[in-house]
Design a protein that fits this description.
Blueprint lengths: L1 H26 L2 E7 L5 H12 L5 E7 L4 H7 L5 E5 L8 H7 L10 E5 L16 E7 L6 H4 L1 H6 E7 L11 H11 L4 E4 L8 H10 L2
Parallel strand pairs: 1-4, 1-5, 2-3, 2-4, 5-6, 6-7
Length: 213
């Protein structure tokens, strides 16, 4: 019974996600669903990405959190359209949550919409929201076991941003194991090594992202 219920939930979500996708295409906006664990550096990566690309393209953001608006305030300070979604307990954003806030964004005035999902390595990978691509951020401080512990996240993502590379000399993380396990799960995965603290690798990531459009 539980499997049937979950299947119905995902099917209903996928129908709404397809409606979202249609709206995004009509508006001519490319949509990225950015996922990762709490503390991986998703919001800081967003800030760095916006600064790198804002002179070239128009960017909007949807921020997903269980409670609070700190991340949206940080993004709003960069003078880009941003909407905060508080799930009130849910560990992910779903298509209906996204659908309900689309009227709050000037979609036709955007080139790129980045959805920062709730910090979680499980649920966000299961729910489509109408995005063109899923991408994930992994802090090297999280350890090298994450690809094999959370394989769906890596399989569903088009890109993996390995953040906090400046900490590598102080960690026992086996970065080669992260790369190899990630690519074993998803041979098409594009991997970027960055440090949001120092800015290393940000330009390569941002320009690749821009080129997807």
């Amino acid at each position: 019974m539980k499997v049937k219920v979950v299947t119905r939930i995902l099917e209903a979500n996928d129908r709404i996600a397809e409606d979202n996708r249609r709206k995004f295409r009509e508006a001519g906006v490319y949509v990225v669903n950015l996922m990762g664990a709490p503390g991986a550096g998703k919001t800081t990566l967003l800030e760095r990405t916006i600064r790198a690309l804002k002179p070239q393209i128009r960017i909007g953001v949807i921020e997903g959190d269980i409670v609070g608006s700190d991340d949206a305030e940080r993004i709003g300070a960069l003078d880009v359209p941003v909407v905060q979604i508080n799930t009130g307990g849910a560990c992910h954003l779903d298509a209906n949550m996204i659908n309900e806030v689309l009227d709050e964004l000037p979609l036709k005035e955007l080139d790129l919409l980045i959805i920062e999902n709730v910090g979680n390595l499980v649920c966000p990978a299961e729910f489509k929201v109408g995005e063109d691509r899923k991408m994930m951020v992994l802090s090297i401080a999280e350890g090298h076991d994450k690809p094999l512990k959370y394989p769906l996240m890596f399989r569903e993502s088009s890109a993996l941003v390995l953040n906090k590379m400046d900490l590598l000399p102080y960690m026992n993380t086996d970065i080669n194991k992260v790369r190899n396990d990630s690519l074993a799960l998803n041979p098409q995965l594009k991997i970027f090594e960055v440090s949001c603290s120092t800015g290393t690798g940000i330009d390569a990531w941002a320009q690749w992202l821009n080129g997807l459009r």
